[in-house]
Write a structure and sequence with these properties.
By secondary structure, the chain is mainly alpha-helical. The protein is about 60% helix and about 5% strand.
């Protein structure tokens, strides 16, 4: 019963990770955030692999999933530090998120809750095919929305890592104590003892 509980819990965590990653992928596409898009794609593949390993009792797939979650926590920690501008990190470095291919920022910058976007006309600051805007009245700034999204990813990854290690340990123990068909058990096969005395029984007709 405990094994089923662990597997079912891990599947629930993977499902939540998949939903959160797909939601994040949509908004990163809308904001042309190419580095997060690539990372989200790899994460979705790893989560699907983890779900497959959980359902099919594949120990190696769960180990790969657990290792990926460590990298995923590191990536999301970097995202949190980036949007909070910890240390020398700055949001002005477009190369970090868009590979320096566009001037777009987070989609939430213009579409956050309560945000009022006002275009600045006749501005000479904008390059061709771009326009300058001012954003005001946001109930929650976009960088905090991105930080919250990454924090949720970190929390789910930590739970997923713990349960992936637990379930993989259960799978490994099951493999070590596997009983082969034919009467073998964990204590070894005991052949029938040969009797040194032959007992004769009378035959009545």
């Amino acid at each position: 019963m405990g094994k089923c509980d662990g597997r079912c819990t891990l599947l629930v965590i993977c499902s939540l990770q998949l939903v959160a990653a797909l939601q994040r992928q949509v908004f990163d596409f809308l904001g042309y955030q190419w580095a997060p898009i690539l990372a989200n794609f790899l994460h979705i593949m790893a989560v699907i692999l983890g779900m497959f390993g959980t359902v099919q009792f594949r120990f190696r797939y769960l180990i790969f999933y657990a290792v990926w979650l460590v990298l995923w926590v590191g990536w999301n920690s970097f995202i949190i530090c980036f949007y909070l501008e910890v240390g020398n990190l700055s949001q002005d470095g477009d190369v970090l998120m868009t590979f320096n291919t566009s001037l777009h920022r987070s989609w939430w910058m213009e579409h956050g809750p309560g945000c009022l976007v006002t275009p600045v006309l006749d501005s000479h600051m904008a390059p061709d095919d771009h326009h300058v805007i001012t954003v005001s009245g946001c109930l929650l700034d976009y960088q905090y929305i991105e930080v919250l999204s990454s924090a949720i990813q970190v929390l789910l990854a930590l739970f997923g890592f713990v349960y992936a290690c637990y379930v993989s340990k259960v799978f490994q123990d099951d493999e070590d104590s596997f009983d082969f068909i034919g009467g073998f058990d964990s204590y070894g096969y005991q052949p029938p003892q040969k009797s040194s005395h032959l007992q004769l029984q009378p035959l009545y007709t």
